[in-house]
User: What shape does this take?
Amino acid sequence: MSKLRIELVKSMIGRKPNHIATLKSLGLKKMHDVVEHTMTPELKGKLAQVEYLLKIEEVQA
Assistant: This one.
């Protein structure tokens, strides 16, 4: 499984409520927050929904 570094680069203000909930479930609360997750099918679906707000990088372990 690969690890991903996810950064919130656009604001949540004015977004759909389900997109805001998805970002919070990823652990992103405010702009420029960074979290690391391992790639799973559930994570892939969440990222597909809100990818326009994120910067996603693969992390070398």
Notes: The chain has one domain: 1-57. Residues 22 and 41 are 14 Å apart (CA to CA).
